[in-house]
Amino acid sequence: DIVLDATKLTAKTAGVQLKENYDGKTGTAIYTGEEDSITFTFDVPGTAVYNIFVEYHTEEGKNVSIQRGFQLNGDLPFDRAGQVVLNRVWNDEREENGGFKKDAFGNDIRPSQVEDFCWTSMYVYDPLGYNPDPMKFAIMAGTNTLTVASVKEPVTIGKVILKPVLDLKSYADVAKEYDAQGLKKYAGEELIFEAENAKEMIDILQNTYYA
Asked: Which helix (H) or strand (E) holds 205?
């Protein structure tokens, strides 16, 4: 992986702010407004194809999608790289006791969604959804620049990580790696989650494979 953070920042517009140890994350984060751009300079040992993975903190704005353009060496590698959407984070609105509002008959009322301004991360995808896989960026050997240009909404960027595009391993190969690490297949009781606790369920599924 090639990690691009504030230490590799070589150009920024006037509105960019550097934030130290922002909201619990150690290091220097980079706040960008709606009209800002930041440029990282980095070296690549050999020509290769990469996915782009972004660690970022959502910020209060106009409640529309966060959009950024990703330029390699000053140019868009393809049109849709200029319209990338960084997802916001939403949670169910709850009462002080953690439950949901109820109607006169004691039934849960469908909760409103409340935005959570927090650290999150994602791969860069086609904003139109035509390709289900992360976007692929061909990067030439040598010194390169990556510019992240604002299109809509502010966002704070912790890291931009260039990850080599790799062939997915088979389940059997991954299972062998888990076994070598001493991980065992989960054999406990069934884990049951109420459907309305969507975020809790997603967090568990993303972080639990073996136990």
From this structure: helix 198-207
Report the distance separating Cα 121 and Cα 91, nearest Å.
16
Query: What's the gap between Cα 179 and its chain centre?
Result: 29
> Cα dihedral sign for 8, 12, 17, 23?
negative
Residue ranges in the chain assigned as alpha helix (H): 171-180, 198-207
Q: Token digits for 66?
A: 């966060």
pLDDT of residue 28: 96
120 contacts 80 by C-beta, under 8 angstroms = no
Query: pLDDT of 14-25, one tens digit each?
Result: 999 999 999 999
Measured distance CA(68)–CA(127) in Å, rounded:
11
Residues pairing with 17 in the sheet: 31
Residues 6+ apart with CB under 8 A from 15: 32, 33, 35, 36
158-190 per-position pLDDT tens digit: 999 999 998 888 989 988 998 898 888 778 888
Query: Residue 181 class from Cβ within 10 Å (0-12 exposed, 13-18 middle, 19+ buried)?
Result: exposed
User: Does pTM top 0.85 for this prediction?
Assistant: no
State phi, psi for 22 to the nearest 5 degrees: -75, 125
The SS3 assignment for 39 reads strand
Residue 123: which residues within 8 A CB-CB, separation 6 or more? 51, 52, 53, 54, 134, 135
